[in-house]
Amino acid sequence: MEVTTLPAPVFCGVDWAEDHHDIALVDAGGKQLAKLRINDDAEGFAQLIARLGEHGDRADTLIPVAIETSRGLLVACLRATGRPVYAINPLAVARYRDRHSVARRKSDAIDAAVLANILRTDMAAHRPLPADSELVQAIAVLARAQQDAVWARGQASNKLRSQLHEFYPAILNAFATHKHGLCAREARSILAAAPTPTIAATLTRRRLQSLLKKAGRVRGIEAEADRLHKVFQRDYLHQLPQVEAAFGQQTSALLRQLNTACLNADQLEKSTAAAFEEHPDAPVIRSFPGLGSLTGARVLAEIGDDRARFASADSLKAYAGSAPVTRASGKSRTVMSRRIKNQRLAAAGYVWAFVSLTKSAGARAHYDHRREVGDRHVAAQRNLFNRFMGMLFYCLQHGQLYDELKAFPIQPQDECSAAAA
Question: Which residue in 277, 17, 18, 45 sits closest to 138, CA to CA?
């Protein structure tokens, strides 16, 4: 009887660099089978695939790859082949390196071998990159870029506000109560026409009406122009004329940065929302209170659409940072908020929980209850976000829409109160 022997498993480690990559292949026994350096181009990737093929890489037995990053063209091309790709934290690689050398030797070739040995010994302890669809990967690019643009817009606005405090309090008073502050189109339009308080004081009501129309305002133009005219005509402290003019030039430069940031955020928001609406998970995500197209896109971008990525709702909650972490040793036991988490998903979750308070009576009641038992505002919102993440996991796994009655069922005392009323 002929006995068929299966090929011995092979593991690949890639030490990533900007213009080249070091490759190492090891077998199940830890023997290094091959090492090479490739360029960061199509020719180098072809060399890597050819070398993997020489050591048993087939469509049904793809060699897993460990690398220290989850981004870049090399990672994208490796994922496109369908093989499992493991993104290993560089800090973890440093700990593994000390297991093989007490002399603390380090080189690119050694790091590639360390990465391959991580898969050989502890592959079960690490997670491969998720098998997300092409659409959700595109949504992730757009959603993260839009979030970065929003953060850049906030930084540009804060820089401009700090600058205006130095010499131009009138414009700050004029838009102190506006929803968008200096990011409002009216504020940016007037600031572009009058970069100094001296010029602002010369603006007529008709000129202000023209600037408001140019900014896109269609209602209450005359009343708003009268209000702004009165604000600019008040008495304020002034810098010396030449100093004020210099501040005005710097303000114009900061305003151009703010205009660019606002334009980028608005355009990316439209693109993100449009891509999100094309995804089949969009109806489920948008059914949750507090999640619109933009916030929903941010959530989807971080959790992906690979249903096997998270083994349970608890895993998703830990990834989002909404679940607390417990540290116990002997008789001491401490429960604290999780610091190691997906920061983008956590930021989206804070907005999600905050908006849901006005969209869902159950969410509001849950938040109020957490406040009554002693949670502070942030902790109560994080607890609500944690509950929403569990619901979202279940709904996505089963293709169900959010149901308020199932999410926050009426308690018996609430039913008695409703009957008495």
Answer: 277
CA 106 to chain centre: 33
Question: What is d(CA 106, CA 112) in angstroms, rounded to the nearest whole number?
Answer: 10
**Span 213-228, mean pLDDT?**
92
Tell how far CA 242 is from the center of its chain.
44
Q: Which residues contact 2 (CB under 8 A, 6 or more apart)?
A: none
The count of other CB atoms within 10 Å of the CB of residue 61 is 12
C-beta separation of 321 from 341 below 8 A? yes
Give CA–CA dist 118/110, Å, rounded.
12
- For residues 330 and 320, is the Cβ–Cβ distance under 8 A? no
Measure the CA–CA gap between 88 and 65, rounded to whole angstroms.
Answer: 10
User: Would you say 345 and 352 are in contact if contact means Cβ atoms under 8 Å apart?
Assistant: no
Q: Which of 273, 322, 321, 323 is nearest to 301 (CA)?
A: 273
Starting at the edge strand found earlier in the chain, the sheet holding 85-87 runs 32-39, 20-27, 10-16, 65-67, 85-87
Residue in 200, 149, 204 with CA at minimum distance from that of residue 175 = 200
Cα 30 to Cα 117: distance, rounded to the nearest angstrom: 7
Q: Could you tell me if 203 and 193 are in contact, meaning their C-beta atoms sit under 8 angstroms apart?
A: yes
CATH superfamily of the domain spanning 10-125: ATPase, nucleotide binding domain (3.30.420.40)
Task: Give the whole-angstrom CA distance, residue 195 versus residue 164.
Answer: 10
Tokens 């023997």 label which residue? 31
Q: Which amino acid is at 332?
A: S
pLDDT 10s digits, 266-298: 999 999 999 999 999 999 999 999 999 999 999
